[in-house]
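Supplementary Methods, section 5.1.

A reviewer requested that the exact input to the structure prediction be made available. We therefore reproduce it here, unchanged from the version used in the analyses.
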Amino acid sequence: MKSSSAALVIAAALLHSGFARAAPAPSEAQTTSKRSTRPKVIIDNDFAGTTSWPPTMLFLGAGYDVLGLTVVVGNSWVNSETTHILRFLEAHLINIMGISKELTPSDVNLDNREQTADALGGDPTSGDPFRITPIPEGLPTWLKAQEQNAVQFMIDQVHKYQGEVEIYVAGGATNVALAIRTDPEFASLTKRIVYQGGYVSTNLFQTDPTPSYSVYINEDVGADFNTFIDPEAAKIMLNADFPEILISGQVANNVFLTSDMIADVLKVNTTVTTQLVAPYWSEAVGTPLWDELAAGVMAYPELITVNRTVYIDVDTAWGGPHYGRSFVAVEGYQPAGTRNVTFITGVDEAKFKSLLVKAVQGVY
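The structure derived from this sequence is encoded token-by-token as follows.
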């Protein structure tokens, strides 16, 4: 069956797969009423490994309407990342309205300063952005990404739900920056942006000895990869006229996945806890919960305990020692063309971890 709307491709596939939970179909009026009272989010991420599923489950657990998932190069290549998130949705029957790939994955041209995270640690695709390699949970068998590109999908949704759409950006800002450049109204019609990036003053931290409980050295933990992979895009996004921009980056550097969290999750038996927690989380103890915390503070603002209003900018001077690094300033000392953002510096870690465990245990 073909959907009449490209944004409904994933929902249609799930509802007609024969695996969806049996329930009476809501009337159009009921659906419209429900959507008008629930927050709406587009999840833009470089899906791979643990980042493929916990943020999505946090939003669903908080009662969000997830309008779609958009994919951007970062942790791996776009095609590989799309495979991860499609398989997650396919295997665990989560009803998401749309999935879009990046606008032009074939045009991505990374030099030796801007490699994918997989490439830095041994890229299983051998540098081929179109090669799909096996993943622990198996490759998707029937669910497909829609043909519409991520940029146009974002623009369409923001115009459809003016002032309602929140965008969660946990990869590079490429898709969002292209939407800004394509549509002059895009930023102003979006409700807010939450960005997992924008690290500041982490250079000295990067030289500190690595704690024994961390799986990453501090050089990696303190590196603002999401900004560094496309500094120009980050600058465009962070300087755009969104009503609100929330920065949730380095606040997660000391919020780690623990063995106790995994034990708590496994107390509930679902396909997610048995098929994904085992192959991914069990090998990630000591990893900062970067993407998860960004989703957490977006879905549950009460988790934020300390924040400040600052002006932020990104250095885009190619070849310089600070290329791709973020800088902040107070009003009156900010660089020309910048705008203020809310920079998170403290969170309720215990409450966040409790909410994350419950979200991962959930069935949606």
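Confidence is low (pLDDT under 50) at residues 1-35, 103-121. These observations are discussed further in the main text.
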